[in-house]
Amino acid sequence: LTVTCRSCILLPTFLTPTPSSSLRNITSFVVPRMPISTINDSISESSVHKSSIPTKVEMSQNEKYSEAPSEAPTIPPPPEQYAWSRIRENCQDAFSEFFGTFVLLLFGDGVVAQVVLSRGTKGDYQSISWGWGLGVMLGVYVGGKSGGHLNPAVTLANCLFRGHPWRKFPIYAVAQVLGAMAAAAVVYGNYKSAIDAYEGGPGIRTVIGENATAGVFCTYPAEFMTRTGMFFSEFIASTILQFVIFAMADSANIGAGPLMPLGLFFLIFGIGACFGWETGYAINLARDFGPRLVSYMLGYGSEVWSAGGYYFWIPMVAPFFGCAFGGFLYDVFIYTGPSPINTPGMGFGRLVSPRRSTWSNTYNANSPV
């Protein structure tokens, strides 16, 4: 190693035949080749001290020399979520069911009001079936994020046979009833003048009779129907409803896929056209109880509960039995996917088993109870 021209130029000695061990350590630092004049111009006496000795630095091929280590890039924090965004996210299912049922009743009660209050000049019974079918189809589109149940009995069937979380059942049911009540109130506000004219004057509200308008909002049975016939009619219609819903949702079957709302349109139209005359095919607690409660509060009185031999409880109870039975029939005879029916004992074992070991997605079946 030699120092010349007062510039501390390091000359490698790897060309020496027998370099010493100390020189091997020093000469491992190789200065890139460049003309001496360039080195002398770029290195000044003030910037290099004779006592400074270069050290060996091992770097990868992709690394470059830098005077100071670069700081790690900082990731900006996510933007603060607005309070309403958090509420909407946490209540997404409830909002979806509320507005889906709202749209269903808006079209359903709306078409009944138009046909009844126009005395059949602006539609007929088939118009009512079309209107309810459209209401279901559009309601499912609106409430699709939550599954578009729009019916507590349908939610119950999904909890029983498709692993829908039981903790969500009361949330869905309350949202569906409130959505139906809101829609009934809107329909009443829209047709209030027509109701006054049909009834014979402002403030006159009747449930049974020639000019009765209570049937605009909820269902009432035909006069000849017996209590058993009322229940059976609602039970059969609800069984058909859930059986076909499971069929259209079954991917192993033909399935409706993205055409599910359209399939529901034809399903509701068919039920109304073929099984709707005797009781009005409520097949839905929310659809009947919510508007019935609104009509009671709007002045129709307690007769909304006592009419038809206290018929009001039948559309509240029969759809649950019907939808549960319809789902049971489909899973027993057709469905091959995950269902309590497709477990040992056809799902009845969990009624007496002390451990929750049967199929469900509402809990971890492998976790201790």
Automatic annotation (TrEMBL):
Keywords associated with the record: Membrane, Repeat, Transmembrane, Transmembrane helix, Transport
> By its UniProt entry, which SUPFAM superfamilies does this protein fall under?
Aquaporin-like
Note the topology in the membrane.
Answer: Multi-pass membrane protein
| Entry coiled-coil feature ranges | none
What's the name of the protein?
Aquaporin-9
Q: Which GO terms describe its molecular function?
A: glycerol channel activity; water channel activity
Q: What InterPro entries has UniProt attached to this entry?
A: Aquaporin-like, MIP, MIP/Aquaporin, MIP_CS
Q: Where in the cell is it found?
A: Membrane
Gene3D superfamilies assigned: Glycerol uptake facilitator protein (1.20.1080.10)
PANTHER family per record: AQUAPORIN OR AQUAGLYCEROPORIN RELATED (PTHR43829), AQUAPORIN-9 (PTHR43829:SF9)
* Reactions that this protein is recorded to catalyse: glycerol(in) = glycerol(out); H2O(in) = H2O(out)
